[in-house]
Amino acid sequence: MIEAIASPWPPYALLVILTAIARLVCENWFAPAAFVGLIWSFFTGASLLVVQYPVPGRGMWMLVLMVVAIQFGALVVHHLQPQSDPDARPPNSCELDALIVQCRRVGLVCTGIALGGCVYFLFTSLEEFGLQWSWIGMLEVGARWTLLRYDDVLEPWSVRLLVMWLHPAALLGGILVAYSSRRRDRLIGMATLLPALAYGFLTGARAAILLGLTCWLSGYVALLCICNRGRLHLFSRKRISSLLLSATAIVVMFLTIDGIRDSRWYQGFVIDFRAQKLATYLFGSPAAFAGWYAHAVDVPATWGARTFAGEFDLLRIKNRTIGTYTATSNVTSGSDATNVFTIFRGMIEDFTPYGAVLLAPVIGGLVSWIFTAHQMRVTSRLLCLSAFYGATLVSPLSSLFGFNGAMLAWVVAWLVFHKAKRCLPVFSRPLRAQQVTDL
Questions:
Q1: Residue 157, Cβ neighbours under 10 Å: how many?
Q2: In the chain, N or C: fewer CB atoms in 10 Å?
Q3: Using CB atoms within 10 A of its CB, is residue 213 exposed (0-12), middle (13-18) or buried (19+)?
Q4: What are the CA-CA distances from residue 103 to residues 173, 384, 410 (Å)?
Q5: Nearest to 62 by CA among 128, 4, 12
Q6: 14-60 tens-digit pLDDT
Q7: Residue 411: which of 385, 376, 387 has the closest Cα?
Q8: How far apart are CA 439 and CA 433, in angstroms?
Q9: Residue in 232, 222, 210, 231 with CA at minimum distance from that of residue 99
Q10: Can you tell me the distance from the alpha carbon of 262 to that of 271, in angstroms, rounded to the nearest whole number?
Q11: Please, are residues 212 and 163 in contact by the beta-carbon 8 Å criterion?
Q12: Neighbours of 302 (CB within 10 A)
């Protein structure tokens, strides 16, 4: 009995079972209760398989409790909130048309600013490091900046102020691709990911690519859910193919980034790939959280300084530590370690374990109400749901809104949505909304 409680597998099994129940109740994987459970079931299961040491059951029970608390709040509101009629009219197409025009314009501007920052950063780095203009020189820029970042040396402010616009560009690009069926719009929407990819390779930082993809996917999924009145299905043949292709592309990109980060140039530039290190980065955080919580000591609440670390640092309330935490957790039998402990460590340190458990169902209930409140204005729902999907996708690693660039994305989106509402009477020829058909 004691061994069963100390094992991480019983709480994981409970999470999987409750997630399956949430899917049956909500009839949709994108409903908040099911979506949160799906993401955490996948990452937690992968973490238990990747790590090479016993994961403390006490810490895993706490992690599952946080996820279940969010699901509980979401399911209660889902049960109380009247469900929409599947034959009801879709959202106002004119309102979406006005929104898409603004997303196209502002998305292009943000992409141009961010790409300009990447080009400026590349040439200044080549000059600073005395490197030649070549593919090898560009790759070596990323390796050099990785070493500098370990010494707490960051990119110049001028570069960061320009490149941070990759986040709103990606968010607006995802919205553009989700709604418009025009080839031009889809090309523009996909091009908004270029600054994130370029900056990731130039700095050897995986976070840039990860956050860019997260912003893009959050806008894409949120608008598809709204256009289909919350009845969007995940496991269709087309979507499974897209998921597999996207996962392969992400793994290849991250392996390349890791190769750049671990490269050496003593006798020429040599790229070094370490698959285990990538697995540790992607899936080690749930196990790291469990290990941290099992041995954590009580500390004073920081009231948001962890969850919103970037904003607290920008306002000079509390300095942000590069990488969020200086302490690391070994998740393999070798030297691989991680300083990534999921969003829940930040919530617990911000509001104490009791406060975090009480806050979680409130968050779940609020998001579930927005998900089912089809009478709300489209732009308001899109802003909130995209933030939820983005925060959930990143939650196994960290807090999305602990990064100033991510917060900028939703501030810009709010301004774009407000502008779209003001321009609404001008548009009369609607675009044809994308129809989602399960195969």
A1: 8
A2: N
A3: buried
A4: 7, 17, 12
A5: 12
A6: 999 999 999 999 988 999 999 999 999 999 999 998 887 788 899 99
A7: 387
A8: 19
A9: 222
A10: 7
A11: no
A12: 18
